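Good morning,

Attaching, inline, the backbone tokens for the sequence recovery test we're adding to the shared suite. The designed sequence is right after.
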């Protein structure tokens, strides 16, 4: 059972998930109006007291596609520690900490980050296939992953592949592949993976040259849902996510 936390204004926070301990923490209930640079600096300062922080990833969903409601991604972040012990210490110490006026919800991330998995040697084809299968099952679609190339969850941020996008063309026709254009320099494959994995059918991200990336889904309709939901997402103070279909 997840725990229920009382906020400072007596509004109850929904029960929190209980995932197995790992070096990555998932944070929620953050005031999404905080500017990203300030948020990252503040989180690093807060959590580095408990051990070495490898990376802090913040997502802000304050801009979404036309006619779309703001996505639930706003007010969320991930803190990747060098060790599980440090993550556990931080979770126990900072859960419920009043962070910019709101009680900080701190939990273990659903899955180990790519950075830690690759370091520990646990990032392999079987891991990617298993996560892809579980992703499909959770979405109620069943079936078996077709090959070890299928990727799901945070493991989808594989090493960048720079040749696939260049061989494809933009299109207005629905496709299983999306093209992200004019990405800011600070946008990486892990950030995009965390963004798109919220949508059913997500498989993988391939970074490419020219500030672009290809995002692959299981079906055309799933790719369309992601395009409608995330086109215009604010990636930085000066850059929004630009999405279009990509024909292979």
């Amino acid at each position: 059972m997840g725990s229920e936390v009382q906020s400072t204004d007596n509004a109850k926070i929904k029960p929190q998930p209980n995932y197995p301990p790992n070096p990555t923490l998932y944070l929620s209930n953050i005031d999404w109006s905080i500017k990203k640079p300030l948020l990252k600096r503040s989180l690093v300062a807060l959590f580095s007291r408990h051990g070495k922080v490898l990376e802090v990833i913040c997502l802000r969903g304050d801009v979404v596609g036309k006619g779309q409601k703001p996505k639930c991604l706003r007010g969320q972040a991930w803190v990747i520690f060098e060790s599980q012990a440090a993550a556990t210490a931080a979770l126990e110490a900072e859960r419920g900490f009043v962070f910019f006026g709101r009680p900080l919800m701190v939990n273990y991330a659903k899955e180990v980050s790519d950075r830690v998995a690759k370091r520990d040697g646990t990032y392999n084809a079987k891991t990617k296939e298993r996560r892809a299968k579980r992703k499909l099952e959770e979405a109620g679609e069943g079936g078996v992953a077709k090959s070890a190339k299928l990727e799901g969850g945070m493991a989808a941020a594989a090493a960048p592949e720079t040749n696939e996008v260049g061989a494809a063309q933009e299109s207005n026709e629905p496709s299983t592949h999306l093209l992200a254009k004019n990405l800011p320099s600070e946008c990486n494959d892990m950030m995009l993976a965390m963004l798109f994995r919220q949508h059913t059918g997500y498989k993988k991200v391939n970074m490419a040259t020219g500030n672009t990336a290809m995002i692959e889904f299981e079906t055309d309709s799933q790719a369309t849902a992601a395009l409608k939901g995330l086109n215009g997402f604010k990636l930085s103070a000066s850059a929004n996510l630009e999405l279009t279909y990509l024909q292979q």
